[in-house]
């Protein structure tokens, strides 16, 4: 066991504070990672505040982890000391169910072991990346290409794969019209990746406040959803809508923007239940779906794709003592577009 410095929420809705946590000894297939940077995801805030249900405390959040291998177990074959690596939202799964065998560990039939706020196979709580080090089985570690700076690559481990996976699954690319609802931590990655895939990209945001940013990131069009004309002008024009916001919407209005066989895929997870009028889906074989991160193979594919196309997150780097302030700023939409903690300050 190794004791490392970390920042944790001692109880639900409590401010995070500096503490220490124990990491297991490096096992045969384990990799010890010196964490360099970790992103702040909106889901960190949901879980610290028990917005998604009862949670495990103390909680060390953080599932956008970028760092360097410091030690490897005797049976590790994929990584060596000094390698640049990342860890995303999960650190284990059953490995034997149909989904795991297909590389879809995020849909493990038994449920994956999440990077934090979860219980590992050893029966101990998992602690995330707001810490100096982490020990992870090599099968749940991914390689960060040299072309990607570690700080701006960290958010790719959640925000990047959460948008890349549905864009690939729903065939975003040349000749396809994709809209991204919300230009935040998730949304700005959706715009960049959809553009890199060759799709025609539209941003649907409450206002035009971030229009210049959206166009710079690769959007072809930018519309304010507060303007009723948006839903008239864009009616029946979209193949795919990625909804990145964590709040209920007038889904019927958004369904009206889809062409025949168009799909709206929900990535944000509101704390409250949402209502959907099923009649608004009828007529053009439109569909409503969801998507959760990606498996380990697809996460590596995403990182390689981003390296090839120069896609990284727009970040604001902070010290660990600014975490609580950063949480409030995320809730106020006052970040462009992802906070990343320099773990040298932990």
UniProtKB/TrEMBL annotation:
Its EC number is 1.1.1.2. Keywords: Metal-binding, Oxidoreductase, Zinc. It comes from the Bacteria. Its cofactor is Zn(2+). The keyword NADP does not apply. It catalyses: a primary alcohol + NADP(+) = an aldehyde + NADPH + H(+). InterPro entries: ADH-like_C, ADH-like_N, ADH_Zn_CS, CAD-like, ER, GroES-like_sf, NAD(P)-bd_dom_sf. Belongs to the zinc-containing alcohol dehydrogenase family. This is alcohol dehydrogenase (NADP(+)). It comes from Streptomyces roseus. The lineage of its organism: Bacteria, Bacillati, Actinomycetota, Actinomycetes, Kitasatosporales.
């Amino acid at each position: 066991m190794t004791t490392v410095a970390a920042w944790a929420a001692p109880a639900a809705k409590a401010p995070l504070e500096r503490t220490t946590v124990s990491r297991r000894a490096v096992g045969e297939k384990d990799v010890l990672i010196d964490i360099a940077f970790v992103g702040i995801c909106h889901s960190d805030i949901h879980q610290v505040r028990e917005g998604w249900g009862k949670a495990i405390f103390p909680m060390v959040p953080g599932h956008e982890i970028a760092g360097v291998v410091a030690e490897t177990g005797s049976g590790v074959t994929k990584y060596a000391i000094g390698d640049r690596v990342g860890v995303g939202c999960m650190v284990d799964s059953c490995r034997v169910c149909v989904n795991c065998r297909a590389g879809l560990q995020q849909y493990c039939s038994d449920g994956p072991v999440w990077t934090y706020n979860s219980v590992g196979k050893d029966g101990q709580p998992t602690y995330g990346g707001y810490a100096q080090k982490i020990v992870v089985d090599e099968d749940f570690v991914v390689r960060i290409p040299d072309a990607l700076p570690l700080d701006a690559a960290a958010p790719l481990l959640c925000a990047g794969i959460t948008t890349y996976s549905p864009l690939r699954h729903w065939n975003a690319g040349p000749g396809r019209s994709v809209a991204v609802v919300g230009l935040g931590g998730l949304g700005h990655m959706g715009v960049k990746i959809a553009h890199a895939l060759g799709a025609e990209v539209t941003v649907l945001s409450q206002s035009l406040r971030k229009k210049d940013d959206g166009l710079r990131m690769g959007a072809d069009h930018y519309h304010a959803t507060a303007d009723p004309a948006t839903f008239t002008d864009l009616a029946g024009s979209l193949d795919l809508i990625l909804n990145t916001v964590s709040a209920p919407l007038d889904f019927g209005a958004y369904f009206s923007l889809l062409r025949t066989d168009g799909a709206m895929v929900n990535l944000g997870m509101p704390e409250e239940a949402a209502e959907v009028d099923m009649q608004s889906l009828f007529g053009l074989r439109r569909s409503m779906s969801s998507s959760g991160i990606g498996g380990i193979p697809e996460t590596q594919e995403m990182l390689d794709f981003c390296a090839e196309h120069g896609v990284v997150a727009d970040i604001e780097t902070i010290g660990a003592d600014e975490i609580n302030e950063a949480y409030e700023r995320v809730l106020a939409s006052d970040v462009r577009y992802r906070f990343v903690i320099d773990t040298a300050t932990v």
